[in-house]
Design goal:
By secondary structure, the chain is of the alpha/beta class. The chain has helices spanning about 15-25, 40-45, 60-70, 80-100, 115-120, 130-140, 195-205, 205-210, 225-235, 245-250, 275-290, 295-305, 310-320, 325-335; strands spanning about 5-10, 30-35, 50-55, 75, 105-110, 150-155, 170, 175-180, 190, 215, 220, 240-245.
Length: about 350
């Protein structure tokens, strides 16, 4: 039985949601793997009951071994923007191997859609920060052993990116919210962050059902006509969609054309090759534009009956108003206010 779970990537937006879902009723002890236990985000998680910290580096085998020997289960979500596609592919596989060696009972890989594979290996859809995770997911499911339960939780773009991320609208002088993106008539399989935490909790709560499963989750496939309609109904503000070409979109990007996809790389990650930011997100937007990703919403309804079911429901829940606000700060504030 898994009683103590290590969360790698705990202080990020997804990891924070997973920690809260695992810790909320004290069924599990949760250990957050962090470089800096004194950071604001780490300290907020450490204020939760049953949560402790392991200080270490995900690119250091000694730290991984030491952390894994203290726990029964692992939720691993590496930061591809910090370590890059090549490092994530290697360390994703190596971390899985160490989990088997150290006797981890249940290993969960936080993944994303393997876009280039789902697109028929057409490089149009190649997206390093997605493909690295999908590549590792394929490997670990194909190489699982009887001694360790293995699950994959494949998520996607957070709905919260509408107030902190690439989906944030531009605000015109008259207050109109402008969603200018290269999406055409395509759809983005958006997911509510808090529900990702609940799905992770379901995986650990149901090891027999989740063993060997790639649980692909989303809230709703959102097209931009639906997006602006929801914004206008919920906020009362005028909203418009401008369909851009990839070239027009990146011409407005604050990131230079040759910026690395691993834009948040750390000094010890040694990211030297890989896609540029523009190349990476060209594949990302192309995948949504061409609708190459699917979800089984009927299955998700059965697994999580209380899940948020639509973009409009999410907007009303979080009181979306089109303004920028920090995802992590919002999660912290809502927890302190007693809302989920």
């Amino acid at each position: 039985m898994v009683k103590k779970i290590l969360v790698i990537g705990a202080t990020g937006a997804q990891g924070s949601a997973v920690v809260r879902a695992l810790a909320h009723d004290k069924k599990y002890e949760v250990v957050i793997f962090t470089r800096n236990p004194s950071s604001e985000h780490a300290q907020e998680l450490l204020s939760l009951p049953g949560v402790s910290a392991f200080q270490g580096n995900t690119l250091n085998e000694k730290d991984i071994y030491a952390a894994f020997r203290q726990v029964d289960g692992v939720y691993c979500n590496l930061d591809g923007f910090a370590i890059g596609e090549i490092n994530e592919t290697y360390w994703g596989i190596r971390t899985f191997e160490i989990a088997i060696e150290t006797g981890i009972k249940h290993y969960v890989w936080g993944s994303l859609d393997y876009l280039v594979k789902k697109g028929g290996y057409n490089s149009k859809y190649r997206c390093g920060h997605y493909d690295a995770k999908g590549r590792v997911a394929d490997f670990i499911l194909q190489n699982k052993t009887k001694a360790m339960k293995v699950s994959v939780l494949t998520s996607g773009p957070y709905m919260e990116m509408l107030f902190d991320g690439v989906f944030v609208p531009k605000v015109q002088e008259d207050g109109t919210l402008v969603y200018a993106h290269p999406i055409g008539k395509g759809h983005v399989p958006m997911v509510h962050l808090e529900d990702i935490g609940k799905y992770a909790r379901w995986i650990f709560d149901h090891p027999q059902k989740s063993d060997g499963l790639d649980l692909e989750v989303a809230t709703e496939h959102v097209d931009w006509k639906n997006l602006v309609d929801c914004v206008q109904r919920v906020t009362g503000k005028k909203a418009v969609f401008i369909d851009l070409s990839l070239q027009e979109f990146f011409a407005k990007s604050p990131m230079p054309e040759n910026a690395p996809a691993a834009w948040a790389q750390t000094s010890d990650a040694k990211v030297t090759t890989g896609q540029t930011y523009w190349e990476n997100f060209s594949g990302w937007w192309s995948a949504w534009h061409d609708d190459i990703v699917t979800r089984d919403y009927e299955m998700l309804d059965k697994i999580l009956p209380d899940r948020v079911r639509s973009l409009e429901e999410w907007m009303r829940k979080v009181k979306y108003d089109g303004a920028f606000r920090s995802v992590l700060k919002d999660l912290i504030d809502r927890r302190k206010a007693g809302t989920r």
